[in-house]
């Protein structure tokens, strides 16, 4: 029986890193843009970005390791 070999997984690692870091960066940029008009909404966006980053680093970081 031929063993199943996995090729280059560099692209998969890049996709996982983008999934774990991309949305928190976008939420933070939106939070900074909205901060002058409505600080309460900006605070909520910053909290969501921090939570997404924490959960993303835990789940995607566990998959990468």
Secondary-structure blueprint of this entry?
Elements: H1 10-34, H2 39-64
Radius of gyration (CA) equals 17 Å
Query: How much helical structure, as a percent, in the residues?
Result: over 70%
What fraction strand?
under 5%
Largest sheet: none
- The SSE order reads HH
Give the class from helix and strand content and strand pairing.
mainly alpha
Question: If helices are DSSP runs of H or I spanning 4 or more residues, what is the number of helices?
Answer: 2
Total E-strand runs: 0
Overall morphology:
elongated
Mean pLDDT: 86
- Ends distance: 29 Å
Poorly predicted tracts of residues: none
List keywords for this structure.
2 helices; 78% helix; single chain; elongated; 65 residues; mainly alpha
Describe the 3D structure.
The structure is a single chain. With 65 residues, the chain is an all-alpha fold. The protein contains 2 helices and no strands. The protein has helices spanning 10-34, 39-64. The radius of gyration is 17 Å and the shape is elongated.
Q: What is this structure, in a nutshell?
A:
The chain is mainly alpha-helical and 65 residues long. The protein has helices spanning 10-34, 39-64.
């Amino acid at each position: 029986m031929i063993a199943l070999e996995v090729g280059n997984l560099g692209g998969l690692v890049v996709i996982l890193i983008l999934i774990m870091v991309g949305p928190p960066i976008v939420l933070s940029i939106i939070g900074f843009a909205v901060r002058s008009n409505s600080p309460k909404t900006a605070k909520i966006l910053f909290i969501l970005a921090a939570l997404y980053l924490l959960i993303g680093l835990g789940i995607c970081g566990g998959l990468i390791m």
